Amino acid sequence: MVYRIVDPFNALRDFQQSLDSTRSSDGFGRGTAGSGAFPAVNIFSKGDDCVIVAELPGVNKSDIDINVRGNQIRISGKKDISYDDGVSVHRRERDSGNFDRTLTVPIDVQSDGVSAEYQDGVLAVYLPRAEADKPRSVTIN
Fold it and tell me: 87 lies in a domain?
């Protein structure tokens, strides 16, 4: 009878190499990327510009921070859920606390032209494309 011993570290190393090769491939090149799972977002192009729509139910507008640098947008803040004194919680499925999400868009953003709207728990961030990033037409002499 032959016993085969499997080294778990080899399996982990192979898995890490697969992840590294996927990240270095062009698959994530000009797409969107993000860290963190909250808030849930949709990112789409509108002409030359981009728009981020984020779901932030239960978050106060004053508790949201938006920072822009190059083609990265950071949405951070906190979500508070409070209960009255003497209340007994039977089930708690709604999360609260700090959130921090960084997103990468496929354009360089004109940071001084960024605007945002927040209504009914939905945040819309409008990201105008930087002039230097816009394609130019060249006339042939």
Answer: no
Q: How many domains does the chain have?
A: 1
- Give the pLDDT confidence of 72-103 residue by residue, as tens digits: 999 999 988 888 888 888 887 777 888 889 99
* Phi-psi category of residue 86: left, alpha or beta, with phi > 0 → left and psi -120 to 50 → alpha: left
Q: How far apart are CA 11 and CA 60, in angstroms?
A: 45
Strand, coil or helix: what is 24? Answer: helix
Q: How far apart are CA 97 and CA 107, in angstroms?
A: 31
Token code pair at residue 3: 């016993």
pTM metric for this prediction: 0.68
- On whether residue 15 sits in a domain, the answer given is no
Q: Is residue 10 in a domain? A: no
| Amino acid in the structure at residue 28 | F
